[in-house]
């Protein structure tokens, strides 16, 4: 072989090697899309994950966080994840029912969690893990559960008792359980994307809604809602999920590092959720735009009695055995349904 040919081959090999090295140097991009504000528990959790992931992979991973439905609205984001247009989401647990994994709607059942201890026992234990496993058939891997908190009711009229909701148009997420919940109260449920709620309240398309206080405050809903009642009747949580093909295609060391970052971000997000909600209530009360009602024990009992029949009504959809499993977790802490 001629010397010139050898030199040319060596140069070509170096060029190819240089190209490969340049390609390797390109960071792995994770687009993390969500529909709430950056200053919510979920928004802060996403930013904390970004920080840890980028630091611990030493720049090999870049996390791009897109809050406030910048990329996709509620109904669009799940399809975008499945198609690989984004790699990570943190949708509310109610979003998995329309996807075909209706067991997740058990989280929407009113008063299904009598305490935070019961909630943690479910989401941090085998019951929560078994539910996340059901997502894999949809091309999704569930990484963690993140809290937002317990929901309160708001409207432009006082909501002192269940009867006060009769005929009130209430925005809900797309969930058969939430639909049944509102109908049990005599309300008129209206499914609507989260990003559209403020304007709908402002223009009277809907009269009220249910949200954890941090969501109500950061979306400025208190500016267009005259009354709120601290019913704490339902739970709003999220599952942090990733595209299965993307996740399983990551280098093993990168995936392990990201799992560790997600574990710490979960502790962080869940720890701040209650504080964020408490601060939001204080801020909304201070604004003077919304009158808050703190129900007595007897009033809460009336809300519970009005809503607990929804559990029985939803057995056929969610699964009686699954609901019973949640009851058993509650019984470990001395609660009876």
Automatic annotation (TrEMBL):
Keywords from the named record: Signal, Transport
InterPro entries registered for this protein in UniProt: DctP_fam (IPR018389), TRAP_DctP (IPR004682), TRAP_DctP_sf (IPR038404)
Coiled coil: none
Keyword Signal annotated: yes
Keyword tRNA-binding appears in the UniProt entry: no
Top-level taxonomic group: Bacteria
CDD domains, sorted: PBP2_TRAP_SBP_like_1
Any single GO CC term annotated in Swiss-Prot or TrEMBL for this entry: outer membrane-bounded periplasmic space
Gene Ontology terms: biological process: C4-dicarboxylate transport; transmembrane transport
Signal peptide (residue range): 1-22
PANTHER family: C4-DICARBOXYLATE-BINDING PROTEIN DCTB, PTHR33376
Similarity annotation: Belongs to the bacterial solute-binding protein 7 family.
Identification of the protein by name: TRAP-type C4-dicarboxylate transport system
Record organism: Paramagnetospirillum caucaseum
């Amino acid at each position: 072989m001629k010397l010139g040919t050898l030199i040319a081959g060596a140069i070509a090999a170096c060029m190819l090697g240089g190209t490969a090295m340049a390609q390797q140097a390109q960071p792995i991009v994770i687009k993390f899309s969500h529909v709430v504000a950056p200053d919510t528990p979920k928004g802060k959790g996403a930013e904390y994950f970004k920080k840890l992931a980028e630091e611990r992979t030493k720049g090999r991973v870049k996390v791009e966080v897109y809050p406030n439905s910048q990329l996709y609205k509620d109904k669009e984001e799940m399809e975008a994840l499945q198609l690989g247009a984004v790699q990570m989401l943190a949708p509310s647990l109610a979003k998995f029912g329309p996807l075909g994994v209706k067991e997740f709607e058990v989280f929407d059942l009113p008063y299904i969690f009598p305490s935070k201890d019961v909630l943690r026992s479910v989401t941090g234990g085998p019951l929560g893990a078994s539910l996340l496993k059901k997502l894999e058939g949809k091309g999704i891997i569930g990484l963690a559960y993140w809290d937002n908190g317990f929901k309160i009711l708001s409207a432009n009229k006082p909501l002192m008792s269940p009867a006060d909701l009769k005929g009130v148009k209430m925005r809900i997420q797309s969930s058969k359980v939430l639909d049944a919940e509102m109908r049990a109260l005599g309300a008129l449920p209206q499914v609507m994307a989260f990003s559209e709620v403020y304007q709908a309240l402002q223009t009277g398309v809907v009269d009220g809604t249910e949200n954890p206080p941090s969501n109500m405050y950061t979306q400025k809903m208190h500016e267009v809602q005259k009354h709120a009642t601290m019913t704490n009747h339902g739970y709003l949580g999220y599952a942090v999920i990733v595209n299965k093909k993307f996740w399983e295609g990551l280098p093993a060391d990168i995936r392990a590092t990201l799992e560790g970052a997600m574990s710490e971000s979960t502790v962080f997000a869940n720890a701040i959720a209650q504080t964020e909600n408490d601060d939001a209530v204080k801020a909304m009360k201070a604004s003077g735009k919304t009158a808050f009602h703190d129900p007595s024990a007897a009033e809460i009992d009336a809300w519970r009695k009005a809503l607990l029949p929804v559990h029985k009504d939803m057995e056929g959809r969610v699964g009686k055995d699954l609901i019973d499993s949640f009851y058993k977790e509650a019984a470990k802490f001395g609660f009876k349904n």
